Amino acid sequence: MSNVQNENHGKCYRKKYKYMKKRIKSLIIENAALCDEVAKIQENILIVKDERKFLLRKLLEYENEIELKQQTSHYRHESMTQNGSKAKPKKRRSLEESGKTISSNC
């Protein structure tokens, strides 16, 4: 009887061993597939980071160009107004502001 029990236990353990072996093999394959997917996603992240850096540099260059254009146009405007070509009309002070009063005797 003990011999029969040992055989039954042996068969049972052999079934469990084969099941565990198949299960481990499938987990290894699944893990490898997940690792591949993680590697692809990391590569995509690096590509997107590089694109973002490139676009940021381009944006900063563009903003600097706009700022320089605004500064040069501002300086041109100031130099034109100082030269008199586009001088703003000065406000005339009224006689009352200067401390003189005019009586209207007309």
UniProtKB/TrEMBL annotation:
Domain of life: Eukaryota
Residue numbers spanned by region Disordered: 72-106
Keywords: Coiled coil
All residue ranges annotated as the INO80 complex subunit E N-terminal domain in the record: 13-59
Keyword Coiled coil found: yes
Residue runs in coiled coils: 24-72
Protein name: INO80 complex subunit E N-terminal domain-containing protein
Species of provenance: Parnassius mnemosyne (clouded apollo)
